[in-house]
Amino acid sequence: MSAPDPAEWARFAPHPGDHDLPPGRHDLHRSRLLAAITQEPRTRRRAFVSMRPALAAAALVLAVAGIGGGLATRSGDAPPAALPSPEATRPAARPAPPGPAAKNRGYATVRQLTDAADLVVRGEVASVMDGRAVYRVTEVLYRAPGASVPAEIMVAAELAGTAGRPTVLYLGLVDPGTRVYHPLGGEFGIFDVAGETATSRSPAMSVTGLRTADATATGRAFVTTVAELRQLARERQ
User: Fold this and answer.
1) How far apart (Å, rounded) are the C-alpha atoms in residues 84 and 107?
2) Do residues 147 and 119 make contact, with C-beta atoms less than 8 angstroms apart?
3) Which of 141, 204, 218, 226 is most buried, most CB within 10 Å of its CB?
4) What are residue 43's phi and psi, to 5 degrees?
5) Is the overall model pTM greater than 0.70, yes or no?
């Protein structure tokens, strides 16, 4: 098949002719095109700038989530060991021995008297002079470690009793300089002795048991033996 003759094409499809735009239309389209070209980079820059806070916030959330997950995983494996405080590492302070004021109190048992005493002796008052009694010691049941006990000691006269009356005294050292002793708790620390029986001096100021207090014995003189007092003193030593 041969190509059609251009003359025939012109006969079947005549040229439409030149159709130009109305006056001024070219300038309008050109200004619009230039405005669009100029506006496009600015719009893209604006969009990118406006997205910066959102991107920064998203990055922060991801970072926090990662740190939190790491901590959770680490804490799930093994809890971190707490460092000991300075107070916890210091050795516990040993309690100081009770002073004279602390010893001047009531006592419920002979064991309490024994544990608080500086000296436990058996003997009798030899004489009273200048408000003090010279106490003649016949037996030392207990004495503080390293303490020497002479044959006669000085005891507060108002509580020591009358001369020649045998007693067992639970004593606290009032004045280390003058070596003056005082019965613990007043009359709580005084037992009158008859043979081998020891009876608390005052029913109102008396212990109620050897090792364990007996509430039913309150208000009565406590009676025991010198052998029991001696045994409790040996238990402390």
Assistant:
1) 40
2) yes
3) 141
4) -65, -40
5) no
